[in-house]
Structures are given as structure tokens and as C-alpha cells.
Amino acid sequence: MLHEIQAVLAIECKNVSMSIRKKTIVQHASFSIAKGKIAGLLGPNGAGKSTLLRILTGMTQPTSGYVRLFGERTSVSTLSRLSFLPDRGKLPAWLTAREWLQFASDIYPDWDAERAGQLSVSLAIKLDTRISSLSRGEEARLQLLTCLARTTPLVILDEPFTGVDLLSREQIASTVVADLADGERTFLIATHDIKEMENLFDTIVLIGDGHIHAVDDVEGLRCAGKSVESRYREVFA
Ligand SMILES: Nc1ncnc2c1ncn2[C@@H]1O[C@H](COP(=O)(O)OP(=O)(O)OP(=O)(O)O)[C@@H](O)[C@H]1O
């Protein structure tokens, strides 16, 4: 029975706490995300979103508690099942976008070259420009492409739209990510861009001051006459 429950959960975060230099950053965080869902991790600045995502991906060990991805404790094997866009990732500046994508296709066994080609068109990637000459938003798109061109069952994105302009954010949210959400892959996306993203989410996890304040089913919110934004204001205002 326990095995069956775990099999349908992409992410299970149990009583996770994290302290750095005696400062508590995440406290007793517990929630789960079912397979195939698109979940938003939402909360004010400094709430602990990036720290929690690093713990979920296995980049950082929690002080206590544990994480299971697809029923398995975070390990080398779970690492290969997720594609992670960290909040302050940087790509090698001396490469062109095309050279970077070639490199990425060599190192990731789950790279989908056809999808990478489609994404470079829809994300308007400047393939022959050196990464050092890309704007912040252009580099953010290239980083997003690098994550989305992999076929991992779990995609975790930390602020994928930093520096991306409003219309592109809307377009990327409504077409690129929505296209990839086939009910099989699971997405967890930390973002402040609630308006552009809210139509995409099935579930939202609201975190503030390192505490999980709520885990809501978005359809349930809508039935109760609430939007993701109004729920966010209700919890944090
Ligand atoms: N290595 C660290 N040492 C000390 N404090 C840290 C460290 N990393 C994070 N913090 C603190 O933990 C808190 C949560 O940071 P985190 O980056 O997880 O928040 P966030 O919700 O992602 O914020 P934002 O929305 O502003 O990106 C902040 O107060 C931050 O200063």
C-alpha cells in the first residue's frame, strides 16, 4: 500500500528543516506533489524557496527530515531523473549558444535533439552569439531550453523568468511549458510571476518564513471563487 502511494508521488518532502549558522531557513516542511502535476512554489523574498528546491534536488542536505523523488530517497539515481534550473546558474561565457547546446547534448544522455531544435525557435535563441554577449533575459531563455530539452520525468525550475520581458514570460508560460506538460512529466516551479503562470498550475505550495503555509489544489481554489493571486494575498498580505 505504502509502495503504491509512493509510486504516484513525484515529490515527497517530509518534515524537512534546514539551518545555516544557527539561522533556521526552512522549518518542518512537509508536502507532496503527485506525478504529472505542475506545481508552483510561491512565497515572498527570503521565504526559503531556493533553499527548499536545493534540498529537493539533493544539492543540499537538510538538517533534518527527508525527501523522496518517485519513492526513492535523493541519491545519484534520483539526480538522473530530474532536470534542475538553479536560481543563480551561469553558463560558460566563452561558448556560443550553439556550442553550449552541443556540449549539453553530449553530456545529457536524455537530451532530445529534436525538441532542443524546436525550443531554440520558440525561445528565439541567438545560436551564434557568444554567451558573454547575451542579455540576462536571453541567457535565461538558453538556460530554460537546456532544462526543457531533457526528457527527465521531473523538472524543477527556480525563477525561470528572471530578466525575461513580460510578453515573452506569458508566451513561454502559455506555450512552451504548457506543451511539455503532457500529464506524465512533473514540474515544480518557484516564481514571483504569479499572473503569467497561474493558469498553468495544478497545485500551489505557499511558503513564508521557511514554513509551508498551505498546499492548495488550484481547481479547488477556483471552485471556491479564488484565484492563485487572491489566495497568495490571503496568506501573505
Ligand atoms: N548560505 C546561506 N547562509 C546564510 N543565510 C542564507 C544562505 N542561503 C540562504 N540564506 C537565507 O535564507 C533565507 C531564504 O533564502 P532563499 O534564497 O531560500 O529564499 P527565496 O524564497 O528563494 O528568496 P527570493 O524570492 O528572494 O529568491 C534568506 O533570508 C537568506 O538570506
From TrEMBL:
InterPro entries: AAA+_ATPase, ABC_transporter-like_ATP-bd, P-loop_NTPase. Residues 11-234 form the ABC transporter domain. GO terms for molecular function: ATP binding; ATP hydrolysis activity. Keywords: ATP-binding, Nucleotide-binding. It holds the Pfam family ABC_tran. The keyword DNA repair does not apply. This is ABC transporter ATP-binding protein. It comes from Brevibacillus fluminis.
